[in-house]
Design brief:
Distance between the termini: 33 Å
Strand content: under 5%
Structural class: mainly alpha
Number of strands: 4
Oligomer: single chain
Shape: globular
């Protein structure tokens, strides 16, 4: 059985002399897998302002023109205008780009980052930064994308349970408002007070229900936690096997994994206090601990014959008079 202190001690040992390389990897993974892309349009030729009474327009050539150039359009007419269609198309295009990035790029980088930290603990030499992009290679990319897609899809579906209390509360609240004929008359303070008083049980139900219905999704997130690490070892293992093996590795350990995450709250709070930048300095330590956890659970699974090191991409090496050692298969 593993302990938090053992994992953290070994993680610190593995980061000794390699911290700044681990920091660079964590920073790259964090920047490339979080947030959304933004599209900005700039006109270096001049300034053009069409909203407001006082506007200016600087043409490509000649002197600037200033005057009263206002743009007024009725609100209802805006939705049928070419400007609205252009904004809608740009938003749709940006959304599709962000969605494609979240499916095809970000998960692959996440798996590559996990692979780097796994290899960091398995060798004395510092792994090359290229390990971060190892899964982009031909033959690895699509299997990793597919496996991570199914994992994230299942987590998304489990997460929908948390919205059930919100849907129920909204339904009963609207039904009550219709019954009180709120939509057909002016709302008085007495009606508002009565509605809020009657809504208190719904609010309590919503808070408690949202927490309760979130628990299955949290449990599943810990069940699938080792999937990216497994894919980091063997990108071609397949999504069904990766998810099943992750559930096998984490069986009986999910609560302790939750407590392990809670033990980092203090570190991350200190990082937030340090203008938020300090969080980036905690990430290498956290990832190294997770790598130790994965290695421990992987060792337990091999002993329980749930898997083998060969299935995870390792090859056995045994010299005369020495015990067997599993080393990473060459790429």
């Amino acid at each position: 059985m593993w302990t938090r202190s053992d994992l953290k001690y070994q993680a610190k040992e593995n980061l000794r002399g390699k911290y700044w390389q681990a920091f660079a990897v964590s920073l790259l993974v964090s920047l490339l897998t979080s947030g959304s892309g933004t599209f900005s349009w700039s006109f270096s030729a001049g300034d053009f302002n069409i909203f407001g009474n006082g506007s200016s327009f600087r043409p490509w050539h000649g002197e600037p023109f200033s005057g009263d150039f206002s743009f007024n359009m009725p609100f209802d007419s805006f939705f049928g205008s070419n400007i609205f269609i252009l904004v809608l198309l740009i938003g749709l295009f940006a959304g599709l780009i962000a969605l494609a990035y979240s499916i095809f790029i970000a998960p692959v980088i996440q798996v590559g980052g996990n692979r780097w930290f796994s290899r960091n603990r398995e060798s004395q030499a510092t792994p090359a930064i290229g390990q971060l992009f190892h899964t982009f290679r031909y033959g690895n990319f699509l299997p990793v994308v597919g496996s991570m897609f199914w994992m994230n899809l299942f987590l998304f579906l489990w997460g929908l349970l948390a919205f059930i209390p919100t849907i129920l509360v909204t339904f009963f609240a609207v039904a009550r408002m219709i019954n009180l004929q709120v939509f057909r008359q002016n709302i008085t303070e007495e009606m508002l007070g009565q509605f809020l008083w009657e809504a208190m049980p719904l609010i309590v139900f919503w808070v408690i229900g949202s927490i309760a219905f979130s628990i299955p999704a949290i449990i599943k997130s810990y069940s699938y936690r080792m999937t990216p690490w497994i894919l980091g070892d063997n990108p071609k293992i397949g999504y069904k096997r990766a998810l099943k093996l992750s559930m096998g590795l984490t069986s009986g350990h999910k609560f302790n994994m939750f407590i392990l995450d809670l033990s980092f709250i203090g570190w991350f709070l200190l990082g937030v206090i340090a203008c938020g930048i300090g969080v980036f300095f905690v990430l290498p330590y956290y990832a190294a601990v997770q790598a130790e956890l994965y290695a421990t659970l992987r060792h337990n699974a091999v002993n329980q014959q749930l898997t083998s090191m060969e299935e995870l991409g390792f090859i056995p090496v045994q010299q005369h008079g020495s015990p067997r050692q599993d080393v990473v298969a060459p790429d």
